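Form 7-S
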Amino acid sequence: MPATLNALLAHEPFHLRVIVPAASPTVEVLWAHGSDLDDPTPFLSAGQLLLTTGRQFSGAVPHLIDEYVSRLLAAGVVALGFGTEVVQSGTPPELVRACRRQGLPLLEVPYRTPFIAISRWVADAQAADARARLDWALEAQRAVSLATLGNGGLTSAVTKAAERLGCAIAVFDPDADVIVSSPGGASVTPSGGVASRASRASDATPTATAATRAGTPQERFADLVPEVKRLLRAGRRSRADVDAADHAIVQTLGGTRRIRGVLVARRTEPFDRTDLSVLTTLTALAEVSLEQGQVVRTSLRSLADQLFELLHDGQVGVVRRATASIPVSVPDDRFRVVTLDADQAAPGLADQLERRAFATTSGIFLVHRAGRLVLLVDERRWESVRRMLDAREARAGVSETVGWPALDVGLGQAARALEAAGAGEIGEFGELAARSFLGLFDAGAVANVARVRLDEVLARPDGEELLEQAAVWLRRNGQWDPAARELGLHRHSLKARIAALGAALDLDLDAFADRAELWALLTAAGVSAIDNARTPAR
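Output:
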């Protein structure tokens, strides 16, 4: 145990007598120093017990003794020990009154007790306490390390460290969301019978903190999220000590430019160096765990490709059984298909989506396909995913709610919605279809058929221009003069070109049915003049 006034007074061989008691006898004594100087404070440090024979008080007037006591308190002296029968018989009444008025604990040291013995006792007690704290820290580090090797992994390590340190701990991911935390509930004290330095120095009743708050882990650490986000934005390895209603350590995980998360520990009492050594061990283990998680996600990408092919073939049951014990989630029977261009996604968005998807209960399946990210999102999780995409100003296409038999339909809808979406916009197929029925023509198989049908025309040097002119003509309801004026052509030239197009496509463009077929072909192929005519202004 440490050297405290209580323990010192209880050491019977010293025969010390309390004259002015301390408000808290458990206050720690860091050292004992003897001096008879009129002003010994330049040679003192906070936490010391000052021992004196009172030579400096010979003939001193009371106000000088008051000033002496005041200087000791200002220097952080925790108590004054007066050695009797050396210079004076008994303790001077003026000194007793000064100490009582100002609240400085005063002890009487008998002649037979050497000052050096008291100094030695304090030094030995502090050394024994330091050894005990070191042994405790080594045992705590070992316990945390062993916990990591069990089935619980990082979660078990966090729980064990929280128990040993008597604090609440959480690990945040790069999105400032809690991914691992110690259990909520009543605050505990450090195990092993060795209390922290702060708990030894204070007898105050602890106030409620995150260690005792109820609610979800995100709620219990909500007040520290701004600091967590600040360190994440900085993007470099760093630590912040936060002192508010309690004491918190906020430590980044990972190296500069590859921060994997943040570890937070908090409790009512400050953390000392031995506490920090345990947190350092936990930090190292958390960094290894998060790096390993990154490696696992990389390996799961290729597995997700194979699983997607099985889903595409209707083997949903097989995929569910295969993913039962790995961190890959498969939505329930009603889901949305979401498509994003991988190379245009906001920085970090793909990594954020992967972290969400590669968890057994996420309800999100993610696969990389042809330069795009494709997500199958459980209908119940869609709103939370949408909020994530909105926050990143992502450009995405979203299908209507579909089931596994309609997976192809959902893929086509999401792709079409992505093509129609503007920058930073989430395009929903349902809204696209509501704006224009013809907007469905350029989706899936219809678009492919249209492009094959127009292939012969597009092969001509002026093919695209010819289709654009035909689109303007149809938009002008087949009227030659308005269309010719818009295109800057003579009406006979336009007639000749439209006739040539009809011949190439084997269509009689004087007939309504064949004109309607040409309109549908141009719409499905996405000819710009048609798109501009049917797309409302944003």
